[in-house]
Amino acid sequence: MSIETSITLNNGVEMPWVGLGVYQAEAGEEVKQAVKTALENGYRSIDTASFYYNEESVGEAIKESNVAEEDIFITTKVWNDEQGFNETLEAFERSRQKLGVDKIDLYLIHWPVPGKYKETWGALEKLYEEGKVRAIGVSNFTEEHLENLMKEAKVKPMVNQVEFHPRLFQKGLLEYCQSHNIQLEAWRPLGKGDLLGVDVVKRIAEKHAKTPAQVLIRWCLENKVVTIPKSVTPERIKSNADVFDFALDTEDIQAIDGMNENQRYGYHPDDFPYDKM
C-alpha cells in the first residue's frame, strides 16, 4: 500500500485511502501551497467544500501542479443554505466552475438539513445520472438519517464523511455503513491535535518509531476508514502520508479503541444550528 492506494466504492469508482483536507485553510497562497505540497508528495485526493471558500484556489493549485487533473480525486460539498433540488444543481455548477474542472469525483451533502436533505439527494442523483459527478455521498449523517434517505433514494450513498477519531469512535455507525457498503470517511482524524499528546498514542508511536499523527491516521486505516487529515505545514503534509510502511497490532488497536469518550469537537448532526444559517 502507498499514499496512492485506493478503496473501491460501491459503484466501482476508486477513492484514495488518504487525502488532504483543506477546511480552514485560507484561500490564496496558503491553500495553494498546501495542495501543491500534497500532490508533490503523492497525495491524489483533495477534499474541499463551498463553505470553505477556497475551491477556486484549490482548482488553481491543481492546474499549476505537475499532476494531471484526471489523476486527482476531488471532493466538494453542497452547504446548508444551498440545499433543495434546484438550489443544489446551481450550487454544484458554482463549485465546478470555481474548481475549473469538467467533472467532480465526489459530491457530498455537507449536513442533513431537516426537511431538505432528501430533495438535495434527488439533485445529487440527477448529477450522478448525467455523469457530472463520478460518485455521490453524504457528510455528518447518522444511521437514522441514512435509513430515512435510503427509503426513497434511487442511488445508495457511496460515502458518509463524519467526525471520527479515537475519542469519537462511532463504532455503531462504522458497522452500519460497512454492512450497507457505504464507505465511512473521517474528518478531524487527529481530534484538533488534542490527541497527539495522549500517553497511549505517544507510547504506540514510540513503539513503531512513528509520530502520534501517523498512528492516528493508521488507526483509521486499520478500521477501513478513509481519512483526510488537514494541514498547511509542508513537513506535516509529507509526514501524514507516510503511514503505509507499518501496521498496528491487536494490542495497539484495542488500546486506541479504548480512548472512546463519545467526545465531539464539532456538532452532533441533530444539534447543528440549522436555523442560524
From TrEMBL:
The residues the record assigns to binding substrate are: 110
Entry annotation: catalytic residues: 52
Entry keywords, A to Z? NADP, Oxidoreductase
In this UniProt entry, which residues are annotated as the site Lowers pKa of active site Tyr?
77
Q: Which Pfam families match?
A: Aldo_ket_red (PF00248)
Q: Which residues form the NADP-dependent oxidoreductase domain?
A: 28-260
Q: Mind telling me which InterPro entries this protein's record contains?
A: AKR (IPR020471), Aldo/ket_reductase_CS (IPR018170), NAD(P)_OxRdtase_dom_sf (IPR036812), NADP_OxRdtase_dom (IPR023210)
* PANTHER family on file: 2,5-DIKETO-D-GLUCONIC ACID REDUCTASE (PTHR43827), NADP-DEPENDENT OXIDOREDUCTASE DOMAIN-CONTAINING PROTEIN (PTHR43827:SF3)
Q: What is this protein called?
A: Aldo/keto reductase
Q: Which organism is it from?
A: Alteribacillus bidgolensis
